[in-house]
Amino acid sequence: MSIRPLTLAIALTFAAGLPGCTREAPPADSAPTAAAPAGDTTADAVPAPAEIAAKVAAYAEVPLTADLSHLSEGDRQAIDYLLQAGRIVDALFRRQVYGDLDGLLSTIDDPATRRFVEINYGPWDILDDHRPFVAGVGPRPPGARFYPADMTKEEFAAADLPGKDSPYTIIARDEAGALVVVPYHVEFADELHQVAALLLKAADVASDPKFADYLRLRADALLSGDYQPSDMAWMDMKDSPIDVVIGPIESYQDQLYGLKTAFEAFVLVKDIEWSARLQRFAQHLPALQRGLPVEDRYKAEMPGTDADLNAYFALYYGGDANAGAKTIAINLPNDEEVQLAKGSRRLQLENTMRAKFDTILVPIADALIDPSQRGRITFDAFFENVMFHEVAHGLGIKNTLDGRGTVREALTDLTASYEEGKADILGLYMIGALGGMGELDADKLDDNYVTFLAGIFRSVRFGAGSAHGQANMVAFNFLHERGAFARNAASGTWRVDFAKMREAVDALSAKILTLQGDGDYEAARAFRDQYGKVPAALQADLDALAAREIPVDIVLRQD
Ligand SMILES: [Zn+2]
C-alpha cells in the first residue's frame, strides 16, 4: 500500500480554486439574476425608486466590531494606521473602477438610489448581474476602467506591449491614441505613497516582528509593483495578533479579461482562542483519516497537520472587498509561485459570519425548521460547520485508486461539486468523531446537524446551479431518502432524526469517497443527476421564503 503525502496546505490551495468555499461565498447569498424582467435589455430601463429602496433594504445593515482589549498599545496604534490606509484604498478603488463617483452622486436626488450607489460603488447592481439602476449610465463596461472604453479585443491582442497582461497595470492611450501600459504605482502614485507611509508607521509600532517585516515589504510593493516578496513575508508571519490584507488583489472586476486586480483592504484581529483550537484539531487529522467510514483502500493517503487556517474578527472592509456582497473568508495569496513555496492561508471572518447568521440564517430557520429544534440553531454550530468543512478538504483521497492520476483529472467538471460535497459531509463526520474523542461538547453535536440543514436552505434558496449548490442538493436528497430529516406537510417545516442522520452521514461519506477514489466519471455524473435536483416540496418552501423579505446580504456600518 503506498502512502501518498497529502498536506492540508496543499488541500487548502486546491480549495482556493474551487467555487463554493472561496470568494464566491457571496453568490451563495446573492439574489437571482433572473430578477431582472425578461427582455429588459435597454440601457435606460432602470428600476423604479420603490424597487431600488427594496434593494437597499435587502442589505441588512450591521456594525463591524471586535474586542481590542487584549491587544498591546502598539498593536492598537497600528490598527489605527491600518484603518487610515484602508480608507485611502477604498477611495482609490472608487477611482480605479468607476472614476468620479462623487460627481455621479451629486447628480442623484433620491436617497435610496444614492445609498445603493454607495453599496455598489457605482450605478450597477452587483447582485443583479450589474444591471444599471441610474438612468442614462448604460451597461457596465466589462473592462471597468482598466482599459480604454473604445479598445477592441483585436487591438489588445495585436498590441506588443510588455506588461499588458500584468495584474498591476492599466492600459491607456497616449496622446497619439496608441495603447500604452501604465503601472498602478505610477497611475495611483499619490494614494499609494500615502498608504505606504501608513504601513511603515504601523510597522514601527506593531508587536510581531514578522508582521512588521510584511508591512515594510508591502509598502515597497505598493511603490514598485513587485508584490511577491511581501506575499512570501505574509506567509512567513504566523503569530501576529493583528493582520491586514491590502493592495490590488482579486481580478473579478475585470470582466473583459480577468487580468487586472482591484484594490481592497481588510483590517483584521485574530481570534487567538479559535486559532489554537484549530491547531489542536489538526493534530487529530491522521486519526480522523483512519476513522473515515469507508473501505481502507479509500483512506490510505495521509493528511498533514500543517493547516494555515485561522479565525479573525474583521474591523474594516475597504474597496473591492466592500462592494456588493461581503465575503466571509479570504484565501490568499493568489500568486501561484508563492503558493508552491509557502502554501496558502485561509482566514475565516467570524464577525461577518455572525452577522450573516443573525440576519439571514436565523430567519430562514424560523421559517423552515421544526419549532422543537429551533433552539439548536446556534452560531457556534454554524461556525464549527464552516471551519470543519475547510479542515475536511484535507481528508479523504486526492489520487484515484487505479494509479492513473488525480481525482481532479478523473472527475473534470464534477471535481468541484464532489470536493465541496465531501468537505460538507466529512465536516459533519469530524464533528461527530471529535465529540467521541471528548474534544467537542457531545451534548451540542445535534446542534450541528440542525444548523447544517438550515445552512442548506440558505445556500440553495436562490437556486442550486453552482458546484456547491449541486453538492448541497445531493446531500439533502441522499440524507432525506435515509430518513435523516422529514418534512411536516401541515407546517412546511423540517425536523432532524439524529440517529438516522448519523448513519446517513457515514453512508454519504463512504459514497462520495468511493466515487472520488474510483475516479469513475460516469458513475459520479449518474449519482449527481440522480440526487442533485431541488425536490418540489423543498422548492415550494423556498418560494414561500420570498414573502418574508429575508436579507440577501449585509452592508457594514464602519465609519
Ligand atoms: Zn470548500
Protein described:
- This protein has helices spanning 8-16, 25-28, 49-57, 73-97, 101-105, 111-120, 153-158, 184-187, 189-205, 209-224, 228-236, 272-283, 285-290, 336-342, 350-368, 379-392, 407-411, 415-436, 445-460, 467-481, 498-518, 521-531, 536-545, and strands at residues 5-6, 59-63, 124-125, 131-132, 169-173, 179-183, 242-250, 262-270, 302-303, 309-319, 329-332, 345-349, 485-488, 493-496, 553-557.
- Helix 16 crosses helix 18 (415-436) and helix 20 crosses helix 22.
- With 559 residues, it is of the alpha/beta class.
- It has 2 domains: 5-28 and 266-550, no CATH class; 74-238 and 245-265, no CATH class.
- The longest helix is centred in the N-terminal third of the chain and has 25 residues, at 73-97.
- Strands 7-8-10-12-11 form a 5-stranded mixed beta sheet. Strands 1-9 form a two-stranded parallel ribbon.
- Bound molecules: zinc ion (ZN).
- Zinc ion (ZN) binds at residues 15, 18, 20-21, 389, 393, 420, 423.
- Zinc ion is lined by residues 15, 18, 20-21, 389, 393, 420, 423.
